[in-house]
Design brief:
With 777 residues, the chain is an alpha+beta fold. Helices cover 52% and strands 18% of the residues. The chain is built from 23 helices and 20 strands. The strands form two sheets. It has a ten-stranded mixed β-sheet. A six-stranded mixed beta barrel has the order 12-13-18-15-17-16. Strand 16 and strand 17 (566-576) form a beta hairpin. Helix 7 packs parallel to helix 19, helix 13 (409-420) crosses helix 14 and helix 14 packs antiparallel against helix 22 (740-762). The chain is elongated. It starts with a helix and ends with a helix. 42% of the residues are buried.
Length: 777
């Protein structure tokens, strides 16, 4: 009997059931894929760190080192399991060309380093996660360049400066636990030991990675503090394995989170549709329900009959959704497989997506059970007597027809119907609200990433050109010469020299730890500060968001900074956002020690065209790195931007598809409900076009309310949601860059066109037919 009831119900509501099935299926597919992506990311990242035997703590250093001093400190240290010092040869991008292009990497923001394979740990891996070994004349290139340059095995990498030329053949691609993601602006190329020695003698600058593996990872913070309090080499930033993992997981983690968010939003839409469908079904079957109650069928048994359909539908959709996700997982995890690699699958990795899909099933069934409580209000006598649950009572005094002077009568009636029966239109409103949310968040986030102003989230003032000078033997002299040249350049509108040095700061435990402090005039190219402002006095300092959290300092608090060997009390003037260098930076106007300088930067605004000026500065300031600042963002976050473009396109397609399906479904049910009312309108002389105009008006009124509220929520709650994710990188207060025409004209217009066309197609069921026939139906 139950099977017969299900078959009859499906044939009666075939379209509605199919639409609901599709929504639950989509929700199951996405939640399974998103949860699988998170598990794959976690598993693969852990496997990469195991296979590469990644270091726990790394101190970068530019300049000479005393390995004997490092060994003397390391040997008796119970926290250290192993230590190695990795030598790198940094070669300026203007001397390197990669692949078939003859163009050098002079405009690249990446620091290119050549290394040989390590022997103890921190192994550089190939695409199979095996330790790379290359022979003389061969080179393994970072995955970043494989993707950016479309490199293939057999392509060439050429090094050429005024006195030295060398060519390598690409034989493999590098997975680097430390420097994989594009947000890390350093990349390691692997060459043979013989070629490394040749490069070392003829070109480049030396830089070292002083690496440690610890006996107890839980004491990483204590070890870092202990190292920073020594006189061992530390002319460079210190990073640890936690930061490596965060940076590696960032892009794909955001994608996975957004996929799961979209899945949950679709599930909300499915639940709203279920509620509307169940209410409609109960109303249609009201008299039959009364009969069943009258002949003694228990209320719980009646509920089970109605619930059975949705249990079967949800179960089938969930199972098929999980199966479909198995075929889509490769698409969603392609970037993870490329940059991080595949790991042996654990039982948990199979279980979590199944559990996630199971939760979708339980949510749907629980919601149906909740909605079916409406049976409690049905009595046999009332159902048999009235045959329906009663119409919505309308306030006849509200928006009376004689006040429609400023509107077309049909438009007025459409607006009046929405206001009078808004409880019934809630489904459509929530659908349009959710669709607006799904579209606007990714678009605004993408626009923010692509905006020139995004550099302010990188702790950088907005300028035309950025010139970077790294540590070398004569770097201070070259920096002074650069400043002199720029001062005399008539094309320069304004400029600001900035120097980043290593200072000591007294932490909450009274110990000294390193702090990278940028010094200069911060009023020339100002930042957007979360609170407070730029440091102006010698006793003021601005902290990045993560530093302010780590040091537990707010605006107006004081901290002890070691300047010229003496402790100096500094007042925190402001906090700012910075997603570079692990988000751990500071800005002050104190004098710096040339011995502890990490790098020099000059920010420049020019009156002339930017690209010719960049070419000029590349020649004059060689081997400085001269970058168009807009290109700096594109190269650093290029992979993230591409992922966001894909998510945005998918989100728009999903939102439009949902709008079409739900608008069509809702209007067909509404027209069926209003059939007698349409007949009455026709008897009063209303034409078919009049009725259709009323329904188009209703749909557009609800759409506009949904768009307005959706836009407001997207730019408040949505902005806060994105900020919560980005705060892990050091940007805790993302402000969307909104393109008004795109956000307030094109996106709403696209939805309006889709909804209008869908409405016009849906209301074709209001056909030219006789009034008598309509009333009889």
């Amino acid at each position: 009997m139950l099977i017969k009831i299900l078959k009859k119900d499906f044939s009666r509501q075939k379209k509605i059931t199919i639409v609901l099935f599709i929504f639950v299926l989509l929700s199951a597919v996405l939640v399974a894929s998103g949860s699988n992506m998170i598990m794959e990311l976690t598993n693969s990242l852990n496997y990469l760190f195991i296979k590469s035997d990644a270091p726990h703590f790394v101190q970068m250093h530019a300049g000479e080192i005393d390995q004997a001093a490092i060994d003397r400190w390391t040997a008796p240290n119970s926290l250290v399991e192993r230590q190695q010092t990795v030598e790198m040869i940094n070669i300026d991008g203007s001397n390197i060309s990669i692949g078939n292009s003859e163009t050098t990497e002079k405009s690249s923001v990446m620091d290119i380093s050549f290394v040989k394979q390590n022997h103890l740990f921190d192994f550089l891996l190939d695409l199979e996660n095996q330790v790379i070994q290359v022979s003389r004349g061969e080179i393994a290139v970072p995955i970043y360049y494989m993707q950016e340059k479309d490199l293939k095995i057999g392509d060439k990498v050429r090094i050429s400066d005024q006195t030295f030329d060398m060519e390598f053949t690409v034989v493999d691609f590098v997975r680097d636990a430390q420097m994989n993601p594009s947000v890390v602006s350093s990349k390691r190329f692997v060459v043979s030991e013989a070629d490394f020695e040749t490069l070392k003698k003829n070109t480049g600058e030396r830089e070292y990675l002083i690496e440690f593996q610890l006996t107890d990872l839980s004491q990483l913070s204590e070890f870092s503090t202990a190292y920073q309090s020594t006189s061992l080499p530390k002319t460079g930033p210190a990073v640890d394995c936690n930061l490596f993992k965060t940076l590696n997981a960032l892009t794909d983690g955001i994608v996975a989170a957004l996929i799961i968010l979209v899945s949950l939003l679709i599930n909300i839409v499915a639940l709203l549709c279920l509620a509307f469908t169940i209410h409609s079904t109960i109303e249609e079957d009201y008299r039959e329900i009364g009969v069943m109650k009258a002949i003694g069928i228990q209320q719980q048994d009646i509920k089970k009959i109605y619930l059975a359909k949705y249990v079967v539908m949800a179960a089938l959709a969930s199972v098929l959704g999980y199966v479909a996700s198995l075929f889509l997982n490769q698409l969603f995890t392609a970037n993870i497989m490329l940059y991080i690699g595949a790991a042996p699958k654990s039982i948990l990795q199979y279980l979590v997506p199944i559990i996630a899909v199971g939760l979708i099933f339980l949510i749907v069934v629980s919601f149906c059970t909740l909605v079916l409580r409406r049976f409690n209000k049905i009595t046999a006598v009332e159902a048999l007597r009235s045959g329906n649950m009663g119409e919505i009572h309308m306030n006849k005094r509200f928006l009376p027809l004689h006040k429609s002077n400023f509107f077309n009568v049909n438009v007025f009636l459409g607006i009046r119907d929405v206001t009078q029966r808004f409880k019934m239109y809630r489904l459509l409103f929530f659908v349009f609200f959710v669709c607006t949310f799904i579209i606007i968040i990714p678009i605004n986030f993408l626009n923010t990433f692509q905006s020139p102003s995004f550099v302010t989230y990188m702790g950088i003032g907005q300028s035309d050109i950025r010139i970077d000078l790294r540590q070398s033997a004569d770097v201070a002299k070259r920096f002074d010469e650069m400043i002199t040249y720029i001062q005399n350049d008539q094309d320069v509108e304004r400029f600001s020299p900035l120097v980043t040095s290593q200072f000591k700061v007294i932490n909450s435990e009274g110990l000294r730890e390193n702090l990278s402090v940028e010094t200069g005039d911060f009023t020339v190219f100002p930042l957007e500060y979360l609170s407070g402002g730029a440091p102006t006095g010698d006793n003021e300092i601005a902290l990045s968001y993560l530093n302010s959290q780590g040091l537990n300092k707010r605006v107006g608090d004081t901290l002890q900074l070691v300047v010229d060997g003496r402790e100096q009390q500094m007042v925190v003037s402001g906090t700012y956002q910075d997603v570079t260098n692990g988000g751990l930076t500071a800005k002050a106007t104190v004098p710096f020690n040339k011995e502890t300088v990490l790098w020099y930067v000059v920010a420049v605004d020019v009156k002339a065209e930017i690209n010719p000026k960049i070419d000029e500065y590349n020649k004059v300031f060689y081997p400085a790195k001269v970058t168009h600042l807009q290109g700096y963002v594109a190269q650093t976050f290029g992979n993230t931007i591409e992922q966001l473009k894909l998510i945005t396109a998918v989100a728009i397609v999903i939102a439009i598809s949902v709008s079409i399906l739900i608008t069509s479904l809702f209007l067909k049910m509404l027209i069926a409900k209003d059939y007698s009312q349409i007949a009455i309108m026709k008897s009063l002389g209303a034409s078919l076009q009049d009725s259709r105009l009323q329904y188009v008006t209703r749909a557009l009124v609800v759409l506009n309310i949904g768009i307005i509220i959706g836009t407001i929520i997207s730019n408040t709650f949505g902005q806060n949601l994105v900020s919560a994710v980005m705060s892990q990188m050091g940007a805790s207060n993302i402000e969307f860059v909104i393109k008004p025409i795109q956000a307030y004209v094109l996106s709403p217009l696209a939805l309006m066109i889709v909804v209008t066309v869908t409405t016009l197609i849906s209301i074709t069921s209001i056909k030219e037919t006789s009034i008598a026939k309509m009333i009889l139906e």
